[in-house]
Design goal:
The chain is α/β, with parallel strands linked by helices. It has two domains: 38 residues, no CATH class; 224 residues, D-Maltodextrin-Binding Protein, domain 2 (3-Layer(aba) Sandwich), CATH 3.40.190. It has seven helices and eleven strands. Helix 6 crosses helix 7. It starts with a strand and ends in a 6-residue tail after the last helix.
């Protein structure tokens, strides 16, 4: 197939040559764009984080944009599991877990110690009335958890309120705190919440904390990573960011809690 023809000492494209030229020009343009994109991707670092689903949904993901604003060259990959991560046969750089601080063979940083407390929506209180005491709370629909059996639960909270020996049998049950909180936000009853799960909802007024009862969770959030990896630039950057964010969360929770409890104080018993 003839692609060129010579006219007066110069070459020009034939019709076939012109059509092929357009195709090859588009091919090289798109190839250049693809190579540029691949160069950008290859120049970015990857940070693979494994955490609890409830923590990812309620706390981490809503704040990730702030990390990306500070570190646009780091791509964050998130996975969620409940079981412990040992780093020996996984592709995880960092894990966030609840625990008592005992993690043999793994480096850890304490992120957040929490309290547990009852929460519900303002609409639920308007409909059902505000309970006059922790004892009266037993007459309300309490949202129970099937999972997290070894974590601080309703029975522990009632004991902290001076009502030991409570055995909750009746009530809707959910597999984890996150789902129980979703049910509370739909007005189904009162859920037992941990600080990190509801700080934004308390601040916005979507949920209300009930009673001035101090009940510390028996577990805390920890940042975990393989031994010797803490000083890796990407891990160090995330560690610095999340510690600062957690401190902001803690201050916000304390401020919101103090304001709510100060303006709507309820007796402890």
């Amino acid at each position: 197939m003839k692609l060129f023809e010579r006219k007066a000492q110069r070459l020009s494209l034939t019709r076939a040559g012109l059509e092929l030229a357009n195709i090859t020009r588009e091919f090289f343009d798109r190839t250049a764009q693809a190579l540029d994109a691949l160069h950008v991707v290859s120049s970015r670092e990857e940070l693979r984080i494994d955490t609890l689903q409830s923590f990812a949904v309620k706390w981490l993901v809503p704040r990730l944009a702030r990390f990306h604003a500070l570190h646009p060259d780091i791509n964050v990959w998130i996975s969620t599991h409940d079981q412990f991560v040992g780093f020996t046969d996984s592709d995880v750089d960092i894990a966030i877990r609840l625990g008592d601080g005992h993690f043999p063979g793994i480096e850890s940083v304490l992120l957040l110690r929490e309290e547990v407390f009852p929460v519900c929506t303002p609409e639920f209180l308007a409909r059902a009335g505000r309970p006059s005491s922790p004892q009266a709370l037993l007459k309300y629909p309490l949202l129970l958890r099937l999972g997290e059996l070894y974590h601080t639960n309703w029975e522990d909270w009632f004991a902290a309120a001076g009502i030991p020996g409570v055995n909750l049998i009746e009530g809707s049950r959910f597999p984890d705190t996150n789902m129980a909180l979703e049910a509370a936000q739909e007005g189904l009853g009162i859920a037992l919440a941990r600080t990190a799960h509801v700080v934004d909802e308390l601040h916005s007024g979507r949920l209300v904390r009930l009673f001035d009862i101090r009940c510390a969770s028996n577990v805390a959030y920890y940042l975990l990573f393989p031994p010797g990896h803490r000083d890796h630039p990407v891990i160090a950057a995330f560690c610095t960011w999340i510690v600062n964010e957690i401190a902001t969360t803690q201050r916000s929770a304390e401020a919101v809690g103090a304001a709510a409890l100060g303006s709507n104080h309820q007796p402890s018993a």
